[in-house]
Amino acid sequence: YPAFGGVAGIIEGEIKGCNNYGTLTYTGSKTTAATDASIGGVAGYVTGNATDCHNYGTFAIESAFAGGTALAQSGGNTDYSAFGGVFGGVGPFISVADNYTKIDNTIDKGVVISNCTNEAAISLTPNMATSGGPKMCFGGIVGTLTASMENCHNNANVSVKSNTRWIMAGGLAGFATANFTDCSSKGNLSVDADKDNHPSGVAKQQDYVGGLFGIIAKGTTVKNCQNSGNVSLVNVFTTPGTLSYLGGLMGSYSGAVTMENCSNSPPPLPVRSPRSVVSPVTPTQPSPMSKIAPRSLLQRKAASPAVSWVALAPPPIPSPGRVR
Q1: Which of 97, 146, 106, 104 has the alpha carbon at shortest distance from 256?
Q2: pTM for the whole thing?
Q3: CB neighbour list of residue 38: distance below 8 Å, 6 or more residues apart
C-alpha cells in the first residue's frame, strides 16, 4: 500500500507551509503490482485542509500498480490509484461507485486545498500487470480531489505513460468532486495510453484527459481558471467500446457543471519557414512588404553569438522598357 511523498505519506488532518525540494523517484516491480497507491511530491494523501504547500523537486514513477487510493477506501472500492505533483489525493474519504457518472459534488465536506503550486516536471509511467488493472488518476497538483481548490497553479510539464484500463489526467487534477476558483495550469500535459503494451485480453480503454481536469463531478463550479499549456493524448485503442476524451479544459464530467470566466490558450505551434537563402548581414527593421512577400530573404547577424533573424523585403521589380 504505497503512500509516498517528499514530506509525508498520509496525513489524517491538515498540512500547511510544507515544501519539497528533493528529487522523488518511485521504482517498483513491473510484474507484481502494488495496491492502494497514493503518491505526491509533498504528501501521498491528506484528509484535511492543505495550504501553502509547494513542490520544487522533479518526480518520477515507474512501477506496476493495482487497486485504489484512499479516495475509495471507506466504500470498499479498490479501483483507483492516484499520483499528483503536490499530493496524490486531498480530501475526505468517500465511497466511489465504479460508474463515475454517479459521483456527486462534495463541496459540503468543507475541505479546501489553497495556495499550492507544482514547479517541477513530473514523469509518471505506472503500468498495470494484469488485465483487471486499476483506474489511474494523474494531476499537476493532485491526482484525486474531494476538496475544493483555490488559487493553486501547476507551472511545469506533466508526462504520463500508462497501459491501464482507465486514465484520468489533468493539469490540476485527474479526478475531482468539488469546486475550483482562481487556478491555472501553464505546463504541457502529454499522455501516452501505451496501447501496444496492454496485458493479454485487454483491447478496450477509457481515457479522460484535460488541460485542467480529467473528470469532474456533476454540480461542480469552476471559476476564473485557465490552461495555457498544450494537451496531447496518443497511442489509444480505436476498437469498438473504447472511449477517449481530450479537452483543453477537461476531459469529461459526471453531469451538469458550471464554468465561469475560464479559458484555454495554449501557445501557438511553431511555423516552419519556406526554403530561404541565408547570408550574414546586420539585421534591419523589416519593411511592411516583408509580411506578404513570397520571395523574402532570411538574414542573420553574424557578429553576435546570439542568432537574430529578420525577413527583408525583395528588391523592387524594374519597370518594363519601351518595346521596339
Answers
A1: 104
A2: 0.77
A3: 2, 3, 4, 9, 10, 44, 45, 69, 70, 81, 82, 88, 89, 143
